[in-house]
Each structure stands twice: as structure tokens, then as C-alpha cells.
Design a protein that fits this description.
- Helices cover 36% and strands 20% of the residues.
- The chain is of the alpha+beta class.
- The chain has a single domain, classed as NADH Oxidase, CATH 3.40.109.40.
- It is elongated.
Length: 224
């Protein structure tokens, strides 16, 4: 499977402009110039990496999904969402640590706007990377007459963030240079871990946005 995902910098630029209300006209010229510099700088600092693993689903119960090897993912929403799936794909994507370090340096040196916008750029970049990764995987399974759900990450809906440790048993985080802290946070921070269900053609219908399955309506990153 080709998992060489890429970042769509055009999308990152558009989303940064939308979220931060950055006008393309003469208004907020300092904000616009700083954002453009952060986008250019960010593109050079990102080091995209990804890893994927597919595991057979042993059973799906009311409030959990049991995976081959004895790993149990505890979430009623996940169990309902993956109903009918035969297997599960687990993956991690990251843009590395360089952008995060540079954003921290700028903030520490008093360049608050630049540090903030670079950090935002990194968050959008890893989201774009995850989207592209998911699209590549979906195309691969479609050729095999299979369908794949949208991804779901620990910490969303009713799936506890603590289950990052269980997810780590399904896919080797270290292959991307990502590790987990005791509080279940990923390092580097600009990383995404997730699972997706795999089943017969037509089981999962493709939705335009990942946000369609999330109930965090107040999220500033939420897309239609």
C-alpha cells in the first residue's frame, strides 16, 4: 500500500485565512504578511511521516470493538460506527518536531504573532497530511472492492484519550518517531493517530468532511 501522504499547502493557506479571518486585501496587512511568512517557513520545516497497520476485528459489542490479539477499544460510538466492518486500519501521521520547536522559539523571543500563526499552520498541515493519507488508503481499498470509514481518533466522541496506549498496540508509533507521554499526549504534538473501519463495498459511504462524525460544534477547526 502506498502511504506516502503529502500536505496540501493551498488548502492549509485557505484554512488559515478562514480561521484567522485574514483578508487578501489591504486590511490587516501585518497579519497577512506574517501568515504568508509562516506558510513559507512551515513548508520547509515539515517532515511528513506515516505508518499504517491492518488488523482483523474479532467482535463488535455494544460498547467496545475487540481486535485480534486481545486489544479492546472501548467506545459505544466506535462500536456503532464500525458495525459490519471486517477489519480495522490504525495509522499515525506526523509533521515532525522542527515546526513545533520554531514556533516555541518565536513565542519565547516575544514574536507572539509569528509563533502563534506558525503553530496554527502546523496544526493545519498535519490535518492535511491525515486527510491525504486517508484518501490514498481509500483509493487502495476501492480498487480491492472494499470500503473504508472516515477516521476516528482517541479523545473524540466517547472514545477516551487514554486509549492511545491501546491504539499503540495496533500500530508502531515509533516508526514515525512519535511517542506517548504518561498523559497520553503525542510527541511531537503535531501528530494524529486514528482508526478506520474496513468492510465490503458500500458499507461505508464517503462524507465530505471528517467533522461530519464529530459532535464538537464549537471547534475552531470545524469544517462543513
Amino acid at each position: 500500500m502506498n502511504t506516502d501522504a503529502a500536505i496540501d499547502w493551498g488548502w492549509v493557506k485557505n484554512e488559515l485565512g478562514r480561521i484567522e479571518n485574514i483578508s487578501s486585501s489591504g486590511q490587516n496587512s501585518e497579519l497577512r504578511r506574517t501568515a504568508e511568512a509562516c506558510l513559507k517557513n512551515g513548508a520547509g520545516l515539515c517532515e511528513p511521516k506515516s505508518v499504517w497497520a491492518e488488523k482483523r476485528i474479532a467482535s463488535i459489542k455494544k460498547d467496545c470493538v475487540e481486535i485480534e490479539g486481545g486489544v479492546k477499544l472501548s467506545s459505544a460510538f466506535l462500536a456503532s460506527y464500525l458495525k459490519g466492518a471486517r477489519s480495522i486500519g490504525a495509522f499515525v501521521v506526523t509533521i515532525g518536531k522542527a515546526l513545533e520547536d520554531e514556533a516555541s522559539r518565536l513565542m519565547a523571543e516575544g514574536e507572539t504573532l509569528g509563533g502563534y500563526l506558525l503553530d496554527r499552520t502546523g496544526s493545519l498541515a498535519v490535518e492535511s497530511l491525515a486527510e491525504d493519507f486517508e484518501k490514498r488508503v481509500r483509493r487502495d481499498f476501492k480498487r480491492r472492492q472494499l470500503s473504508i470509514s472516515r477516521r476516528l481518533s482517541p479523545g473524540y466522541c466517547d472514545w477516551p484519550i487514554e486509549e492511545q496506549f491501546r491504539l499503540k498496540k495496533l500500530v508502531d508509533f515509533s516508526k514515525t518517531g512519535v511517542r506517548l507521554t504518561d498523559s497520553c499526549m503525542m510527541v511531537p504534538k503535531k501528530s494524529i493517530s486514528a482508526v478506520a473501519g474496513i468492510g465490503p463495498a458500500g458499507l461505508f459511504t464517503e462524507v465530505k468532511s471528517q467533522c461530519a462524525i464529530c459532535d464538537k460544534f464549537e471547534c475552531s477547526y470545524r469544517r462543513p
